[in-house]
Specification:
Rossmann fold; binds nicotinamide-adenine-dinucleotide; single chain; about 10% strand; seven-stranded parallel β-sheet; 13 helices; alpha/beta; two-stranded parallel ribbon
Length: about 450
């Protein structure tokens, strides 16, 4: 090739002293180029180059969009090629996405800050008590929410007010079966929470906690979503430390009638941390203490819903044991705030989320009497197996790292729940139809 270039040079650059203009040959440069290309298979190399370039542009159609971790609330940039909705939904609402909902197009001309970019969020167990309130808050924030629920204890009525909202989807699905969805965050709540429900089919309960959590962690790993586990204060069992700090490892009976739930949640926590350490999944763990509020299942055996339903029906309030066992009662809006702060924050946890105000069962019965019926009778029954004697969260970690603490007192939250229960039990609409979160006191 070098000799070729030298030769061509001598041909096209004659010495200046023997200069005489050559006759113009109009096709000379074209024929020279063709000859040049045909010599030494240069044309073949040109075609091979074109083929390689075509291949590269086919495999990587555009330069990849900058991808910022999906959890930094205001900086989420998601490649266009990722599909988060069924095709028809995507087409229908692509204009909404361009306006800042859903995936953000990094080349969008919409000025930054006009609308916050919504996330795609799965809430398993989203048709249940806590899940449905969480869904309300996420939708109100502008996120797209997919509820995954098998309706074991959840109800469509809890989320029906979102039907028709393009940012809301409901999937009947059991989390013990795998599921693939493209999302940014997974709030994993699916699991019956009341003893009546989780003892109904203990094997199913532990499957939900173990296999269901595995499936959701697998999903988080696959799509790079952040995963939040709603664990429970039950991981402390019948605690020997009071109040309970997150560093306490608990006192749990592994073979008791509550173990399907307690040990199931403990295993779920273990799986969550193992996926974090072993597979780099971003995880959060909340340990929830007794929570009450509108949309709780009536007659689900949990003490607040039991007392409220009994007082409304003029039945005696059933107290198990001597009624001196203590519990803390958190209003649902406080819990939802805590869960969202945990998901958005930088700390894995576990975090206790509960109201440290401690009540004996008899004190709770008194508050219910004050709120609903001062003449309500109290009836004592033998205590259930493995019922913890004391439960009170130490929430200093959540206060310090999440800037969170409960705002709604029992005396303020209970009336809101009572009006919801009254409507559901008697179909009474006089007390107002607000089943939403209480404003903070
Ligand atoms: N409410 C509390 O006081 C409390 C306390 C501690 C922990 N938690 C935890 O918070 C979460 C929500 O509790 P909740 O009070 O809303 O209970 P809930 O029973 O009202 O809601 C649970 C939801 O999960 C669904 N579900 C159950 N098994 C499922 C499965 N296999 N597949 C799909 N969906 C399934 C139910 O249908 C229901 O909608 C639970 O994980 C619970 O363990 C709640």
């Amino acid at each position: 090739m070098g000799s070729e270039l030298i030769y061509r040079g001598s041909e096209t650059q004659p010495s200046s002293d023997s200069y005489s203009p050559k006759p113009v040959k109009p096709w000379a440069s074209v024929t020279r180029t063709i000859h040049y290309l045909l010599r030494e298979q240069r044309l073949l190399f040109v075609f091979v180059g074109i083929a390689i370039a075509t291949l590269i542009f086919t495999v990587f159609p555009t330069s990849p969009a900058p991808y910022v971790a999906p959890h930094s609330r205001f900086t989420t940039l998601i490649p266009d090629s990722i599909t988060y909705f069924p095709i028809e939904t995507q087409q229908k609402f692509s204009s909404a996405h361009r306006l800042g909902f859903g995936s953000a197009n990094p080349t969008s001309k919409i000025p930054l800050g006009l609308k916050r970019k919504g996330l795609r969020i799965v809430v398993t167990g989203g048709a249940g008590f806590v899940g449905s309130h969480l869904v309300d808050r996420l939708i109100a924030r502008g996120d797209s929410v997919i509820v995954v629920d098998n309706f074991f204890t959840g109800r469509k009525q809890n989320v029906m007010h979102h039907f028709g909202n393009p940012n809301f989807e409901l999937i009947r699905h059991d989390v013990v079966e795998p599921l693939l969805l493209e999302v940014d965050q997974i709030y994993h709540l699916a699991c019956p929470a009341s003893p009546v429900h989780y003892k109904f089919n203990p094997v199913k309960t532990i499957k939900t906690n173990v296999v269901g959590t595995l499936n959701m962690l697998g999903l988080a790993k696959r799509v790079g979503a952040r995963f939040l586990l709603t664990s429970t204060s039950e991981v402390y069992g019948d605690p020997l430390q009071h109040p309970q700090k997150e560093t306490y490892w608990g006192n749990v009976n592994p073979i008791g009638v509550r173990s399907c739930y307690d040990e199931g949640k403990r295993t779920a926590e273990t799986l969550t941390m193992d996926y974090h350490r072993g597979a780099g999944v971003e995880v959060r763990i909340a340990r929830i203490f007794n929570t009450y509020g509108p949309r709780m299942c009536i007659d689900d055996g949990r003490v607040v819903s039991n007392f409220v339903a009994q007082a409304l029906r003029k039945e005696p309030l059933t107290v198990y044991g001597d009624g001196k066992q203590t519990r803390s009662f958190q209003y649902v809006s406080d819990l939802v705030e805590g869960l969202m702060r945990l998901m958005e924050g930088e700390h894995i946890g576990p975090f206790n989320l509960g109201n440290p105000g401690e009540f004996t069962m008899l004190e709770l019965a008194e508050v219910v009497q004050e709120t609903i019926d001062p003449n309500a009778k109290i009836e004592f029954r033998p205590n259930t197996e493995d019922d913890p004697h004391k439960r009170k969260p130490d929430i200093s970690r959540a206060k310090e790292l999440l800037g969170w603490e409960p705002m709604v007192s029992l005396r303020k939250g209970l009336p809101l729940m009572v009006s919801d229960f009254r409507q559901r039990i008697f179909g009474d609409h006089k007390e107002g139809s607000n089943t939403n979160n209480a404003s903070s006191s």
